[in-house]
Amino acid sequence: MSLTSSSPTPRGRRRVRASVAAVATVGLAATGVIAFSGTARAADTLGAAAAESGRYFGTAIGPHLLGEADYAATLNQEFNSVVAENDMKWDATEPSQGQFNFSGGDRLVEHAQSQGMEVRGHTLVWHAQQPGWVQGLTGDSLRQAMLDHIDGVAGHFAGQIDSWDVVNEAFEWDGSRRQSNLQQQLGDGWIEEAFRAADAADPDATLCYNDYGTDGINAKSDGIYRMVEDFLARGVPIDCVGFQSHLDSNSDLSSYQQNLQRFADLGVEVQITELDIGGSGSAQANAYRTVTEACVAVQGCAGITIWGFTDKYSWRADDTPLLFDTNYQKKEAYGAVLDALNAAAPAGDGDQEDGTASSYLPAAWREGTSTHRAT
Ligand code: 9MR
Fold first, then answer.
1. Which pLDDT tens digit goes with each residue over 301-321?
2. Ligand 1 environment, Cβ below 6 A
3. pLDDT value of residue 197
4. Structural domain count of the chain
5. Which residue has the CA at smallest separation from atom 14 of ligand 1?
6. Whose CA is nearest to atom 8 of ligand 1?
7. Whole-number pLDDT of residue 359
8. pLDDT for the residue 347
9. Cα 62 from chain centroid?
């Protein structure tokens, strides 16, 4: 398939997955982490196992924690993608209007690049974590501030971010728009304005809408589905939907995979962006397995990010929702995720010009029939 003007434009994806595949291959060859059992290949880190099927496995991090030896060692060993848990948010990056601070984000990107990791950007526009000066703005002042913020942040990191969470958490449980200051001041058009601005500032990044409570087919995911459908029909540059997946061991996951699949079938990439699952032991492990199996079963699911990796630093301070305990020891849930990643069909149906993994690409893109971002 050649990239013509009528092709979809997964330029960022192609660039990025190629780099992950290359890093994974080099890493595996150098360290011998692939074990052969019969004809099946099994990698023994999360990132390497995900790369086998052309996917990434990432984590949210705090760049200020990189100086902690066990933290950095576990991160570097296991993951091939990172996102800033807080350092790229509006309050962190533009604490005063027009005065940008990229120190945490730059540190994260530098670390990721030194380790050959992908970078997710989180998040350009959100009703929460807005600096005080934004909260007081109205009308066109707020609109201009939003556009300038996107231009400033996405522009600064342009070419270094694989996927941006352009807009975060803009829907209510009933599938209607959240009545945030953005919605109330700017009206329904604000989300597409944000995506167009992000596309202008970083044309190669995969642009995602990201939300929680979308862990199955429900009123909220229905509302988002309708928005994506509408954006694609009108050529609004959206590439991806992020499913945060803050879950508990007993969360209802009965339509989790089906929900990912219906979005992928629209022609957007799907990503699991903030996974963490409360609880412990086999109940927790089974829920992690279910989510991981769902992603690897959906061709358009590009990868999984967990929202921190050690229980030592989870935002859910009273719970133990991550894959490593407070002493950086692997939990049962770790084994479940690794096994599910290793069980995925290997990447590579040979249809990419550069021969890199392509199994995460939705069928419409591989066939060149998608109208997604036809520009
Ligand atoms: O984990 C993050 C926590 O450290 C911050 O205090 C909080 C507010 O910025 O945000 C948390 O991350 C959230 C993410 O940005 C969006 N989805 C929900 C996450 C958990 O609250």
1. 999 999 999 999 999 999 999
2. 85-86, 89, 129, 168, 212, 244, 274, 315
3. 98
4. 1
5. 85
6. 129
7. 44
8. 86
9. 16
Q: Which domain holds residue 155?
A: 58-345
- Residue with CA closest to ligand 1 atom 7: 86
In the chain, the amino acid numbered 97 is Q
Determine the pLDDT at residue 5.
Answer: 33
Which residue among 274, 277, 312 is best mutated to probe the pocket of ligand 1, counting the most ligand atoms within 8 A of its Cβ?
Answer: 274
CA of 44 to the centre of ligand 1 (A): 29
List active site positions.
169, 274
Query: Considering the entire predicted model, what is its pTM?
Result: 0.88
9 occurs within a structural domain: no
Q: How far is the CA of 314 from the centre of ligand 1 (A)?
A: 10
Instruction: With respect to residue 37, please indicate whether it lies within any of the assigned structural domains.
Output: no
Report the CATH number at residue 251: 3.20.20.80
Positions of the chain with pLDDT under 50: 1-39, 350-375
Q: Is residue 89 part of a domain?
A: yes
Q: How far is the CA of 86 from the centre of ligand 1 (A)?
A: 7
| Ligand 1 site-directed mutation target among 215, 307, 316, most atoms within 8 Å of CB | 307
- Is residue 359 included in any domain, yes or no? no
The alpha carbon of 193 and the centre of ligand 1 are apart by a number of angstroms equal to 24
